[in-house]
Amino acid sequence: GSGKGTQAEMLAKATLWKKISTGDLFRAEIAAGTKLGKAAAKYLKSGKLVPDKVTVSLVEHSLKQKAPGFIFDGFPRNKKQLNELLLIFKKILKKYDQVYALEVAVSDKEVKQRLSQRRMCACGKVYHLVYNPPINAGVCDICGSKLFIRNDDKPKVIAHRLHVYHQAGEPILDYFIKQGKLIKIDGEQKKKKIHD
Ligand code: AMP
Known about the structure:
196 residues, binds adenosine monophosphate, two-stranded parallel sheet
Protein backbone atom coordinates (compact mmCIF):
# COMPACT_ATOMS: atom_id res chain seq x y z
CA GLY A 1 0.00 0.00 0.00
CA SER A 2 3.01 2.31 -0.09
CA GLY A 3 2.73 2.72 -3.85
CA LYS A 4 5.88 0.68 -4.45
CA GLY A 5 4.24 -1.18 -7.35
CA THR A 6 3.31 2.07 -9.08
CA GLN A 7 6.76 3.55 -8.45
CA ALA A 8 8.51 0.39 -9.67
CA GLU A 9 6.43 0.59 -12.86
CA MET A 10 7.34 4.26 -13.43
CA LEU A 11 11.01 3.56 -12.74
CA ALA A 12 10.99 0.58 -15.12
CA LYS A 13 9.53 2.76 -17.90
CA ALA A 14 12.12 5.50 -17.29
CA THR A 15 15.14 3.17 -17.14
CA LEU A 16 14.05 0.21 -19.32
CA TRP A 17 15.04 -2.01 -16.42
CA LYS A 18 12.88 -5.06 -15.93
CA LYS A 19 10.44 -5.01 -13.03
CA ILE A 20 10.14 -8.21 -11.03
CA SER A 21 7.14 -7.98 -8.71
CA THR A 22 6.72 -11.13 -6.65
CA GLY A 23 3.17 -10.09 -5.68
CA ASP A 24 2.21 -9.69 -9.37
CA LEU A 25 3.90 -12.98 -10.27
CA PHE A 26 1.92 -14.81 -7.57
CA ARG A 27 -1.36 -13.15 -8.60
CA ALA A 28 -0.73 -14.16 -12.24
CA GLU A 29 -0.04 -17.77 -11.21
CA ILE A 30 -3.24 -17.80 -9.12
CA ALA A 31 -5.30 -16.34 -11.99
CA ALA A 32 -3.88 -18.95 -14.38
CA GLY A 33 -4.74 -21.72 -11.89
CA THR A 34 -1.24 -23.23 -11.97
CA LYS A 35 0.10 -25.63 -9.33
CA LEU A 36 2.29 -22.85 -7.92
CA GLY A 37 -0.70 -20.49 -7.90
CA LYS A 38 -2.82 -22.99 -6.00
CA ALA A 39 -0.06 -23.40 -3.41
CA ALA A 40 0.46 -19.62 -3.07
CA ALA A 41 -3.23 -18.63 -2.88
CA LYS A 42 -3.77 -19.40 0.80
CA TYR A 43 -0.77 -17.28 1.82
CA LEU A 44 -1.86 -14.24 -0.19
CA LYS A 45 -5.40 -14.56 1.10
CA SER A 46 -4.28 -14.41 4.71
CA GLY A 47 -1.48 -11.85 4.24
CA LYS A 48 1.25 -14.37 5.08
CA LEU A 49 4.51 -14.66 3.18
CA VAL A 50 4.70 -17.42 0.59
CA PRO A 51 7.45 -19.91 1.59
CA ASP A 52 10.92 -18.65 0.71
CA LYS A 53 11.86 -21.63 -1.45
CA VAL A 54 8.94 -21.03 -3.84
CA THR A 55 9.48 -17.26 -3.90
CA VAL A 56 13.23 -17.40 -4.49
CA SER A 57 12.93 -19.93 -7.32
CA LEU A 58 10.34 -17.70 -9.02
CA VAL A 59 12.70 -14.72 -8.78
CA GLU A 60 15.69 -16.73 -9.95
CA HIS A 61 13.71 -17.84 -12.98
CA SER A 62 12.68 -14.23 -13.78
CA LEU A 63 16.31 -13.10 -13.61
CA LYS A 64 17.08 -15.23 -16.65
CA GLN A 65 15.51 -12.54 -18.86
CA LYS A 66 17.89 -10.19 -20.67
CA ALA A 67 17.74 -6.64 -19.29
CA PRO A 68 20.02 -3.70 -18.60
CA GLY A 69 18.95 -3.79 -14.96
CA PHE A 70 16.30 -5.11 -12.60
CA ILE A 71 13.87 -3.57 -10.14
CA PHE A 72 12.51 -5.86 -7.46
CA ASP A 73 9.10 -4.91 -6.17
CA GLY A 74 8.28 -6.51 -2.82
CA PHE A 75 11.36 -8.72 -2.77
CA PRO A 76 13.29 -9.58 -0.63
CA ARG A 77 10.72 -9.59 2.17
CA ASN A 78 12.79 -11.19 4.95
CA LYS A 79 16.40 -11.92 5.91
CA LYS A 80 16.42 -15.39 4.36
CA GLN A 81 15.29 -14.03 0.98
CA LEU A 82 17.90 -11.28 1.21
CA ASN A 83 20.67 -13.83 1.80
CA GLU A 84 19.44 -15.98 -1.09
CA LEU A 85 19.35 -12.93 -3.35
CA LEU A 86 22.91 -11.98 -2.44
CA LEU A 87 24.00 -15.53 -3.32
CA ILE A 88 22.23 -15.28 -6.68
CA PHE A 89 23.96 -11.94 -7.36
CA LYS A 90 27.33 -13.49 -6.53
CA LYS A 91 26.59 -16.27 -9.00
CA ILE A 92 25.38 -14.16 -11.93
CA LEU A 93 26.98 -10.73 -11.56
CA LYS A 94 30.67 -9.89 -11.88
CA LYS A 95 30.23 -7.09 -9.38
CA TYR A 96 27.21 -6.20 -7.37
CA ASP A 97 28.09 -2.89 -5.82
CA GLN A 98 25.37 -1.25 -7.90
CA VAL A 99 22.58 -2.70 -5.81
CA TYR A 100 20.42 -0.22 -3.94
CA ALA A 101 17.31 -0.49 -1.80
CA LEU A 102 14.53 2.06 -2.12
CA GLU A 103 12.24 2.45 0.86
CA VAL A 104 8.94 4.10 0.02
CA ALA A 105 8.09 5.12 3.58
CA VAL A 106 4.43 5.45 4.57
CA SER A 107 2.85 5.42 8.05
CA ASP A 108 0.69 2.45 9.09
CA LYS A 109 -2.30 4.78 9.42
CA GLU A 110 -1.94 5.93 5.81
CA VAL A 111 -1.47 2.34 4.59
CA LYS A 112 -4.71 1.23 6.29
CA GLN A 113 -6.56 4.17 4.76
CA ARG A 114 -5.19 3.57 1.27
CA LEU A 115 -5.69 -0.19 1.14
CA SER A 116 -9.25 -0.17 2.42
CA GLN A 117 -10.15 2.24 -0.39
CA ARG A 118 -8.17 0.47 -3.12
CA ARG A 119 -9.99 -1.07 -6.07
CA MET A 120 -8.35 -3.17 -8.76
CA CYS A 121 -9.07 -4.13 -12.32
CA ALA A 122 -7.94 -7.38 -13.94
CA CYS A 123 -6.15 -5.26 -16.61
CA GLY A 124 -3.76 -4.01 -13.91
CA LYS A 125 -5.19 -0.51 -13.40
CA VAL A 126 -5.43 0.47 -9.73
CA TYR A 127 -7.96 2.98 -8.30
CA HIS A 128 -8.51 4.72 -4.96
CA LEU A 129 -12.12 5.59 -4.16
CA VAL A 130 -11.18 9.06 -2.86
CA TYR A 131 -7.92 10.09 -4.56
CA ASN A 132 -8.17 8.31 -7.88
CA PRO A 133 -11.75 7.14 -8.44
CA PRO A 134 -12.97 5.59 -11.71
CA ILE A 135 -15.20 7.80 -13.91
CA ASN A 136 -18.10 5.34 -13.53
CA ALA A 137 -18.41 3.75 -10.08
CA GLY A 138 -17.23 0.14 -9.96
CA VAL A 139 -16.07 0.01 -13.58
CA CYS A 140 -12.59 0.36 -15.10
CA ASP A 141 -12.00 3.52 -17.21
CA ILE A 142 -9.62 1.65 -19.51
CA CYS A 143 -11.28 -1.68 -20.27
CA GLY A 144 -14.78 -1.42 -18.77
CA SER A 145 -14.36 -4.48 -16.56
CA LYS A 146 -15.90 -4.68 -13.09
CA LEU A 147 -13.51 -3.52 -10.34
CA PHE A 148 -12.74 -5.76 -7.37
CA ILE A 149 -11.19 -5.55 -3.90
CA ARG A 150 -7.97 -7.50 -3.48
CA ASN A 151 -8.59 -10.41 -1.12
CA ASP A 152 -5.76 -9.23 1.10
CA ASP A 153 -7.08 -5.65 1.29
CA LYS A 154 -9.61 -6.63 3.99
CA PRO A 155 -8.99 -4.88 7.38
CA LYS A 156 -7.90 -7.99 9.31
CA VAL A 157 -5.51 -9.06 6.60
CA ILE A 158 -4.12 -5.52 6.26
CA ALA A 159 -3.27 -5.54 9.99
CA HIS A 160 -1.46 -8.86 9.59
CA ARG A 161 0.47 -7.68 6.51
CA LEU A 162 1.68 -4.63 8.46
CA HIS A 163 2.79 -6.88 11.30
CA VAL A 164 4.71 -9.11 8.87
CA TYR A 165 6.28 -6.05 7.24
CA HIS A 166 7.58 -4.63 10.51
CA GLN A 167 8.83 -7.96 11.81
CA ALA A 168 10.40 -9.49 8.70
CA GLY A 169 11.04 -6.45 6.52
CA GLU A 170 12.76 -4.05 8.84
CA PRO A 171 15.93 -6.19 9.30
CA ILE A 172 16.41 -5.82 5.54
CA LEU A 173 16.39 -2.05 5.86
CA ASP A 174 19.04 -2.36 8.59
CA TYR A 175 21.24 -4.37 6.25
CA PHE A 176 21.09 -1.72 3.49
CA ILE A 177 21.56 1.14 5.97
CA LYS A 178 24.78 -0.50 7.18
CA GLN A 179 25.93 -0.86 3.57
CA GLY A 180 25.14 2.82 2.91
CA LYS A 181 22.78 1.59 0.19
CA LEU A 182 19.36 2.57 1.47
CA ILE A 183 17.52 5.40 -0.25
CA LYS A 184 14.56 6.40 1.90
CA ILE A 185 11.79 8.32 0.18
CA ASP A 186 8.75 9.94 1.74
CA GLY A 187 5.89 7.93 0.19
CA GLU A 188 3.23 10.39 1.33
CA GLN A 189 3.93 12.86 -1.47
CA LYS A 190 2.53 13.17 -4.99
CA LYS A 191 3.30 10.23 -7.27
CA LYS A 192 5.45 12.34 -9.62
CA LYS A 193 7.45 13.90 -6.77
CA ILE A 194 8.23 10.43 -5.35
CA HIS A 195 9.32 9.27 -8.80
CA ASP A 196 11.57 12.32 -9.35
P1 AMP B 1 2.35 -7.26 -2.66
O1 AMP B 1 1.66 -7.22 -3.98
O2 AMP B 1 3.82 -6.94 -2.76
O3 AMP B 1 1.64 -6.42 -1.63
O4 AMP B 1 2.28 -8.79 -2.13
C1 AMP B 1 1.05 -9.42 -1.89
C2 AMP B 1 1.25 -10.76 -1.20
O5 AMP B 1 2.04 -11.62 -2.05
C3 AMP B 1 2.02 -10.71 0.12
O6 AMP B 1 1.18 -10.37 1.22
C4 AMP B 1 2.52 -12.16 0.20
O7 AMP B 1 1.48 -13.06 0.54
C5 AMP B 1 2.90 -12.44 -1.25
N1 AMP B 1 4.29 -12.01 -1.53
C6 AMP B 1 4.70 -10.99 -2.32
N2 AMP B 1 6.04 -10.87 -2.34
C7 AMP B 1 6.49 -11.86 -1.52
C8 AMP B 1 7.79 -12.27 -1.10
N3 AMP B 1 8.91 -11.64 -1.51
N4 AMP B 1 7.87 -13.34 -0.26
C9 AMP B 1 6.78 -14.00 0.16
N5 AMP B 1 5.53 -13.65 -0.17
C10 AMP B 1 5.37 -12.59 -1.01
